[in-house]
Protein: Nucleotidyltransferase
Amino acid sequence: MGMVPNGLLPSASAGMTRRLDPERWAVAEDRTAELIACIQPNVYSEGRRLAVYHYVQRLIMNCLSCQVFTFGSVPLKTYLPDGDIDVTAFSNSEELKEIWANLVRDALEREEKDENAEFHVKEVQYIQAEVKIIKCLVENIVVDISFNQVGGLCTLCFLEEIDNLISQNHLFKRSIILIKAWCFYESRILGAHHGLISTYALETLVLYIFHIFNNSFTGPLEVLYRFLEFFSNFDWEKFCLSLWGPVPISSLPDMTAIPPRMDSGELLLNKSFLDTCSSAYGVVPHTQENQGQPFVSKHFNVIDPLRTNNNLGRSVSKVFLLLFGDFLWQYSFAVTVAV
Structure:
């Protein structure tokens, strides 16, 4: 019998974590590796994105007294062919905090009108959302520019540490690429601005699968299968998902979790490791508006491993959640039949 996770629906099959035929899955993993090789970052895409980033970096630093870094899937090397570039500018200036967006937008719009500009810039937008963003296309690559988003860099460091821990030729990153591709191209469930799952929420869900199965996978396809199988049976109406284990929504604001597994099997990440990462990478600026605020439950609740008051699932709409479980179950069944 496989391991027995907590937080599942009462109707979940007791055998949902059954052992898989190693020979059949080895063949399927070989084919999956060929697919991943077609969509993962390569020398050309790396060079192209690096050139665009350096161009945007110079542009921002010419109009702001600041430092500029990239974060997210580009430095993590988990972006898809259609993936964007996340850039953030850092400054201690209170004045720049108020005017940076207008200055950067003006600079980009000047480049858009300049026929001799180094790169082709178009569709410059100023999005005044929870996090203010300047969005544009540079050489047809989407670039999102923000200000003082230290959380993005902390998340990058955390995920890099996880990938180093899991190892196996970057199995964690390869699994993220495969599952992101499935979510974006096949099921169309990735995209916080459309009421769907954010990338960081998805990465946390993938990490949870590694955590409860203790990194015991043949390859990325098995991670995808376990992802579909587990989350189609998770009880989202009763629990928040956290790396410490499911947290009953009824007990909030108490964040005490029940163990991730009912059995005595070992988890990938121990409490000491999680606490250390939260302490090292959970730093937020003293100006952060939601600092000290309690976790607010929504329709789809995923607790940030680094800041427990941050709900990574807050973007997900109720309509999406109603379809989510059935959708994942159908695909997990299809994978089982195919293999």
Q: What stands out?
A: The chain is about 45% helix and 10% strand. Residues 76 and 232 are 27 Å apart (CA to CA). Residues 22-39+152-338 form a domain with the Poly(a)-polymerase, middle domain fold (CATH 1.10.1410.30).
